[in-house]
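for the writeup, i need someone to sanity check this before i put it in the appendix. the sequnce is what the collaborator sent (i think, or maybe the updated version? ugh). structure was predicted straight from it, no edits. if anything looks off just tell me and ill rerun, i have time this weekend
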Amino acid sequence: MNEQELIIGIQQNNPLAYKVLVSKYRVSIVNTCMGFVHNNDDAHDLAQEVFLEVFQSAEKFRGDSKLSTWLYRIAVNKSLNFLRSNKKRSLMKSIEQFFKSEKNSTYEIADSEQASAEFDLLNSEKARLLHQALESLPENQRIAFILSKYDDLPYGKIAEIMDVSLASVESLLFRAKKNLQTKLVNFYKK
């Protein structure tokens, strides 16, 4: 099924077209959402919302861009909206988890287990810092960076999704990398 047949099939509520669309793009859409929300369950939920929106609004698709570009745009928008609406809630949850883990960590750990736990803690701290640095980027830089690094999309595809020029994508990625370097180097200096 080529892209045009797929679009027509979706617009005509063809179950086979739905199945082909989901199987073809599910992994990419989940990866895109994961790049923003950093949580597997949330990424899968958002991907389902993306496909649901595609199915519900298929008749509105004008064909000005590729189907994949439309899907990525929806995924980016859903992810950003999710982050905006859950920012306060996740901050409170993080604070609660921090205090809960502090209360539960008073027991003795065997030396080998302690070394492993310290290694895991260091890796989770690095991941948290990277996610925090990503979240602090300006929105367009973050979108370009996630589409490039998490989805491994070529610059031309990113330009299509973001509806900007190729030069803008290159500039956004350059600035995103510089900003991330600065933020992460400052942390490691401390």
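Residues 1-87 form a domain with the Rna Polymerase Sigma Factor; Chain: A fold (CATH 1.10.1740.10). The helical segments are 3-11, 15-37, 40-56, 67-104, 111-136, 139-149, 155-162, 166-189.
thx in advance!!
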